[in-house]
């Protein structure tokens, strides 16, 4: 089992290291790691490059989680009794690769789009519950970070409800939450100080 977990984490990490936002920025001749929040995630792509780039980054970062998880579920370990747990580990590997990509000197995004992709493919029933939580919280607060953190909290709650007997899955789901809070630590400080950027604010490109 340990070998299988390591394989899934490594597979996920390799996919996670594909930085959609950084690539789209380079196509537009902009290094988004030098502007705004200086990370390569969806929100910074949106603020730095506009709505189209933000949407493409979101989709790309979700897809890079969906593909390896489907590979694990349908091709690599389709008959494994712990395939959902292994799929979760794969998604965790994607988030780690996204947050700490080796090709960008371990400076990546915050992992929320990759987490969303993981959530969607692990259990599609999550979507009609998680999406309104994100949309409504962002609409009310105008802080993308608030919606992101609420989604990361909702994930282990959902796993606990749907897989009450599987503590291992709950612990892995909690790892997504911990990573989200680690990467959003500065956002949390800015929210408390009233200086967090709100949705719609743009970053000036030199």
What is the subunit organization of this protein?
Answer: single chain
Beta fraction = under 5%
Structural class: mainly alpha
Q: What do the pLDDT scores average to? A: 91
Q: What is the succession of H and E elements?
A: HHHHHHHHHH
Count of domains: 1
SS element count, helices: 10
Which descriptors apply to this entry?
206 residues, mainly alpha, 0% strand
Overview of the molecule:
- It is a single chain.
- The chain is mainly alpha-helical and 206 residues long.
- It has one domain.
- 70% of the residues lie in helices and 0% in strands.
- The protein has 10 helices and no strands.
- The radius of gyration is 17 Å and the shape is globular.
- It starts with a helix and ends in a 13-residue tail after the last helix.
- The mean pLDDT is 91.
Question: What would a concise description of this structure say?
Answer:
This protein is mostly helical and 206 residues long. The protein has one domain.
Write the layout of secondary structure elements.
Layout: H1 2-16, H2 20-27, H3 42-49, H4 51-76, H5 83-99, H6 112-122, H7 127-141, H8 144-162, H9 167-183, H10 185-193
Helix pairs in contact: 1-4, 1-5, 2-3, 2-4, 3-4, 4-5, 4-6, 5-6, 5-9, 6-8, 7-8, 8-9
């Amino acid at each position: 089992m340990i070998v299988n977990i390591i394989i899934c984490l490594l597979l996920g990490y390799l996919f996670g290291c594909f930085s959609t936002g950084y690539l789209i920025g380079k196509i537009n001749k902009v290094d988004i790691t030098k502007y705004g929040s200086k990370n390569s995630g969806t929100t910074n792509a949106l603020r730095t490059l506009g709505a189209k780039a933000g949407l493409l980054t979101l989709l790309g970062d979700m897809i890079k989680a969906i593909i390896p998880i489907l590979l694990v579920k349908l091709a690599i370990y389709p008959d494994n009794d712990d395939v959902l747990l292994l799929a979760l580990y794969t998604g965790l590997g994607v988030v780690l690769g996204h947050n700490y990509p080796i090709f960008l000197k371990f400076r990546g995004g915050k992992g929320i789009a990759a987490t969303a992709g993981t959530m969607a493919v692990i259990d599609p029933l999550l979507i009609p519950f998680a999406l309104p939580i994100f949309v409504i919280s962002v609409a009310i607060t105008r802080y993308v970070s608030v919606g992101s953190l609420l989604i990361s909290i909702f994930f282990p709650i959902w796993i606990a409800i749907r897989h009450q007997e599987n503590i291992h899955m709950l612990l892995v789901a909690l790892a997504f939450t911990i990573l989200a809070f680690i990467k959003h630590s500065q956002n949390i400080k800015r929210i408390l100080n009233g200086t967090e950027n709100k949705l719609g604010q743009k970053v000036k490109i030199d």
